[in-house]
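FORM 7B - TANDEM STRUCTURE REPORT

SECTION 1: FIRST PROTEIN
SEQUENCE AND TOKENS:
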Amino acid sequence: MFGNRLKTLRKEKDLTQAQLANILKTSASAIGMYEQNRRTPDTETLQTLSNYFNVSVDYLIGKTEIRESAEQLLEDKSVTIALHNKNGIDDELPDEAKKEIENFIEYVKHKYKK
């Protein structure tokens, strides 16, 4: 999962493995191994990738289909409205959108659970 997502994100930015390796201060072969799921990056590298591609670490590692971090989503007024109306998700929304809202609510609950 991680490797596929990394490759997709890299290609979306029109980067070669060598260019991404340069950004991460690693080797092109390391990027290739990540993309083939033959090697797992450390936490610091995951965070660097998350920041560079502007996606959440959870998205990178396949825990969610939501690309944005909780902070990014909360900046979006439509998501904020949906969260305030969590008891009655709009029936006019497609099922996929409803599921994304429900997943996001669970993600935020889990993230801030103490």
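SECTION 2: SECOND PROTEIN
SEQUENCE AND TOKENS:
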Amino acid sequence: MRTNDAGDRLSDCLAIVTEPTANPLSSVAQRFGCAVLDHDTDIGGRYSALSITGLLPAFMAGLDVEAIRGGAAAVLDDFVENHDTAAPTIGAAVSVGLNRMRGVSASVFMPYCDRLNSLALWYRQLWAESLGKKGEGTLPVQATGATDQHSQLQLYLDGPADKMFTLLLMDTAGKGPSIPDDFAGVEGLSYLKGRTIGDLLSAEGRATLETLANNGRPTRLIEIAEVNEISVGALMMHFMLETVIAAGMLGVDPYDQPAVEEGKALTREFLRGGRGQ
């Protein structure tokens, strides 16, 4: 029986989440005697964050998974009751409409919070893999505020007008370390007197939002009070619904990824030595 570096048996410290079907992961679990936790076969990978694949690691990390699901449920319930006017419906309609009517071919998601960078990466996969079919879809771009103000904003403002922007701002005013008075006393920096790092980040986010709008770039604002389980669950459900609705408008299946499967099949073929490398 395989053991880890501490000498523990893998079967004592490893559980495998996989579909209850014959597949390589279930074979690995059986071979090493590991516990198997069934994953619902009706939930695809990028939509599974609110199932066992996402919530079990969250629970193990000490997060409140009931609050995550509660935030998601609130968005879903509102959509069920007000589907024509709910935020995910409007977001999908705007995205598809801008693509059709104004040639917008990219969707830039820019959270002003480093803790939400992983959310932006997940959104990038969700949007790209769900909609990029039959010549449809727009390119999702992950940007980080305020970092990418200095690496991408020039293109966004003065380059091709082919992008829509989603800025995710958090209420950071008055939060974080105070900016030392030594800096505020420097000529040209008096505006920093009495300010915090949170004030600076908030001002940069609002300035970017207004600058994009003033330059005719289609921009929407999503605001959250803080990053917690409820807000993250709500955001994830919003973007999943928005993506599925957009897929319906574009006439594509949001749940498959046929083009990706070709690459997976070729990878296995190369590893088996079936084709020269």
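SECTION 3: OBSERVATIONS ON SECOND PROTEIN
The chain has eleven helices and six strands.
The radius of gyration is 23 Å.

SECTION 4: SIGNATURE
Preparer initials: ____
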